[in-house]
Amino acid sequence: DAGVTQSPTHLIKTRGQQVTLRCSPKSGHDTVSWYQQALGQGPQFIFQYYEEEERQRGNFPDRFSGHQFPNYSSELNVNALLLGDSALYLCASSLVLAGAEQFFGPGTRLTVL
Amino acid sequence: SQQGEEDPQALSIQEGENATMNCSYKTSINNLQWYRQNSGRGLVHLILIRSNEREKHSGRLRVTLDTSKKSSSLLITASRAADTASYFCATENTGGFKTIFGAGTRLFVKA
């Protein structure tokens, strides 16, 4: 059973560009959450997807958008990149049940120059 | 802003000693979870304690939860060099689906 996978591992972009990050959940999981983790900080919740809908959103601007596909995989899109968007982006999958354990992927390291 | 606040920010101990990390939070929760992260990579789930539980054990880990004080502690007994990592507490708030993380405690275990 391959756990949560994310691609790419690393990415370098320049200011103003757009980026798409991808996540495949653990087998059997139906819920995907995305987090941004700046260096030396804890992960910050971006949003969660369930049944292809955004279920809840953290305090992030509309430049951050996402999508969940029928196979439960998910994408995170960030438009008009800023230097401050440089971070580790983590995807976590779980079952939709409240309090269900989240399984995290290894993350995508995004650097914006 | 993040809800959980870990204390201390960094902790350095010798192998074999116990390590205690504390976490405080602000609102009512469904559960509190502790995670470990090595070298800025993915997080590993350690233990989940529900709001109606007071203490939980898993191997060398002991977690306590005091909902009246809105605080939790993680105790790692007989620490090993391999326990060197960042440890985060995370809360799932009542009525919400998102998990809120604190800033973490950096633990260094010297061999």
Write a brief caption for the model.
Chain A is mainly β. Chain A is built from no helices and 11 strands.
Secondary structure: helix percent of chain B? under 10%
Largest sheet of chain B: 6 strands, mixed
SS summary, helix count of chain A: 0
Taken as a percent bin, the fraction of beta residues of chain A is: over 45%
Structural classification of chain B: mainly beta
What is the structural class of chain A?
mainly beta
Number of strands of chain B: 11
| Distance N to C terminus of chain B | 36 Å
Q: Count of DSSP E strands of chain A?
A: 11
- In terms of per-residue confidence, which ranges of chain A show pLDDT below 50 for 5 or more consecutive residues? none
Name the beta content range of chain B: over 45%
Largest interface: A-B, 28 and 26 residues
Could you characterize what this model shows?
The complex is a heterodimer of chains A (about 110) and B (about 110). Chain A has no helices and eleven strands. In chain A, a hairpin with an 8-residue loop joins strand 9 and strand 10. Chain A has strands at about 5, 10-15, 20-25, 30-35, 45-50, 55, 65-70, 75-80, 85-95, 105, 110. In chain A, the strands form two sheets. In chain A, strands 2, 4, 5, 6, 9, 10 and 11 form a seven-stranded mixed sheet that branches. In chain A, strands 1-3-8-7 form a four-stranded antiparallel sheet, with no helix packed on it. The N and C termini of chain A lie far apart (about 35 Å). With about 110 residues, chain A is mostly beta strands. Chain B is mostly beta strands and about 110 residues long. In chain B, strands 2, 4, 5, 9, 10 and 11 form a six-stranded mixed sheet that branches. A five-stranded antiparallel sheet of chain B has the order 1-3-8-7-6, with no helix packed on it. At the A-B interface, strand 4, strand 5, strand 9 and strand 10 of A face strand 4, strand 5, strand 9 and strand 10 of B.
